[in-house]
Design goal:
It is a single chain. The protein is α/β, with parallel strands linked by helices. It folds into 2 domains: about 20-55 and about 330-454, Aspartate Aminotransferase, domain 1 (Alpha-Beta Complex), CATH 3.90.1150; about 55-330, 3-Layer(aba) Sandwich (Aspartate Aminotransferase, domain 2). Helices cover about 35% and strands about 15% of the residues. It has 13 helices and 17 strands. The chain has helices at about 45, 55-65, 80-90, 105-120, 145-150, 150-155, 190-200, 225-235, 290-300, 315-330, 330-350, 385-395, 425-445; strands at about 20-25, 30, 35-40, 100, 130-135, 165-170, 205-210, 240-245, 270, 285-290, 355-360, 365-370, 400, 400-405, 415-420, 445, 450-454. The strands form 4 sheets. It has a 7-stranded mixed beta sheet, sandwiched between helices. Strands 1-2-3-13 form a 4-stranded mixed beta sheet. Strands 11-12-15-14 form a 4-stranded antiparallel beta sheet. Strand 2 (about 30) and strand 3 (about 35-40) form a beta hairpin. Helix 3 (about 80-90) crosses helix 10 and helix 7 packs parallel to helix 8 (about 225-235). Bound molecules: pyridoxal-5'-phosphate.
Length: about 450
């Protein structure tokens, strides 16, 4: 069935995809105009943390929009913005946290690396401008965020247009970049940061940036226990600010309010996005340790960064209502429990399939990596676009999963992520796993000596 809309004036990223027109969403389900139901197994892009159609959020948005929708942030503030940020400070691991709300994850990352630079200049470290990041990362599509993103396929076309920031290898234990055995290594993936800082010259390095649990590019990689404490220690010794990209992991996705809290490490700067307002408003937030903001306030007196829609009152209303909903229904507390059930289901029902090489993740953020051969870990040819094929097959069957590729070398390597709303029930998780199992069985059949995609 062709769902193409009769007006036809919108262009989409996936131009060949036939976009069904959604008319209604409720809980973990979306419904299109033909009445077809889709189980949202990945919250879109791990965004719909509280599910669809939550009326308290809808009302909070409408109420604030009716009261005063747009207030220019250089001139005004609003009760709802002040209250929201005070509530965020109660759950945020930064000491004396201050918040700068924006409108996307990429914007929060751009603002984070700019703030790190400005804070270093305020400290008298005016040469420090580099942000070291990791290969196999995703930090957003705008040019500054792309400069720190470690994903070859996304960077290639725009490489001449970006300042090429340094990258270190990720803690990708399934394919250890150092060829070491997981958990029996000396955490070279962390100690290599020190080598990179020395190589770049510590006087040039403003910050280190990474996702606490790897998201879209590597699909749910969880670093070994000592990783983050070593990173924090190296940053401290070289005067480098630590930025945690919590755009995907933040606001409860991993079973803690923020992913970094699993390692008891305090960053200097956080980027928040995606689930902060559950998709009801495009909200991205820069969070910063208070002392850094105080030093800028005493120095230049203003953050050298702005945006027409920053500090949006309606965004704050959406964020606050989402936070209240999460708290009132104790949804973050439930993520770990549900995550264990989901992990068990994935391991029992998917991990035994020939094409499944690795299962990794935590909370309600799981990645499944697909391989041609489980012993050699040989990836599929990139041209097959297997993860997209599998996501398309699941889509036909009424399930949304989040496909990803490039984990091996920026091009090869297929995985998909599961990251449903925190409200998902056990039965719905079973339904989700059954559909993806069928999609995997149908789309990826291994034959001796060759791989045939059906
Ligand atoms: C970890 C991480 N950082 C940043 C971003 C960019 O967020 P946005 O797409 O809202 O700009 C994403 C989006 O997928 C992400 O997963």
């Amino acid at each position: 069935m062709n769902h193409r809309h009769p007006y036809g004036n919108v262009f989409y990223r996936r131009m060949a995809h036939d976009h069904p027109l959604i008319v209604h969403g409720e809980g973990v389900y979306l419904y299109d105009q033909e009445g077809k139901r889709y189980l949202d197994g990945c919250g879109g892009a791990l965004v719909a943390n509280i599910g669809h159609g939550v009326q308290s959020v809808v009302h909070a948005i409408a109420e604030q929009a009716a009261r005063a929708a747009y207030l220019h942030a250089s001139l005004f503030t609003s009760e709802v913005l002040e209250r929201y940020c005070a509530e965020l400070a109660r759950i945020c691991p930064l000491s004396d946290a201050r918040f700068y709300p924006l409108t996307s994850g990429a914007e929060a990352i751009e603002a984070a690396i700019k703030l790190a630079r400005q804070a270093q200049v305020e400290r008298g470290q005016s040469k420090r401008y580099l942000t070291i990041a990791r290969w196999g990362s995703y930090h957003g599509a705008t040019l500054g965020a792309l400069a720190v993103t470690g994903k070859g396929r996304m960077r290639e076309l725009f490489r001449p247009m970006i300042v090429d920031m340094p990258h270190i290898p990720p803690p990708y234990c399934y394919r250890c970049p150092f060829g070491l055995a997981p958990m029996a290594c000396s955490l070279q993936c962390a100690t290599v940061l020190e080598e990179e800082i020395i190589k770049q010259g510590p006087e040039n390095v403003a910050a280190f940036l990474a996702e606490p649990v790897g998201g879209a590019t590597l699909g749910g990689i969880v670093p070994p226990p000592g990783y983050w404490p070593i990173i924090r220690d190296i940053c401290d010794r070289y005067g480098v600010l630590l930025i945690a990209d919590e755009v995907m992991t933040g606001m409860g996705r991993t079973g803690a309010w923020f992913g970094i809290q699993h390692w008891d490490v305090q960053p200097d700067i956080l980027a928040i996005g995606k689930g902060a307002a559950g998709g009801y408003f495009p909200l991205g937030i820069l969070a910063v340790r208070g002392e850094l903001i105080d030093s800028i306030a005493r120095g230049k007196g203003e953050f050298n960064h702005g945006g027409t829609f920053s500090h949006h009152a309606v965004g704050a209303a959406a964020g606050l209502a989402t936070l209240n909903y999460l708290r009132e229904n104790q949804l973050v507390e439930g993520v770990s429990h549900k995550g264990r059930i989901l992990e068990k289901l994935i391991k029992e029902k998917l991990a035994n399939l020939d094409v499944v090489g690795d299962v990794r993740g935590m909370g309600l953020m799981w990645g499944v990596e697909l391989v041609q051969d489980r012993v050699t870990k040989t990836p599929f040819d990139a041209e097959l676009r297997l993860s997209q094929q599998i996501a398309d097959e699941a889509f036909q069957k009424g399930l949304l999963v989040y496909p990803g590729s490039g984990s091996v070398d920026g091009l090869r390597g297929d995985h998909f992520m599961l990251g449903p709303p925190f409200t998902i029930t056990d039965d719905q998780m079973e339904e989700m796993i059954e559909i993806i199992r069928q999609a995997l069985k149908l789309r990826a059949r291994r034959h001796p000596g060759e791989t045939r995609i059906v």
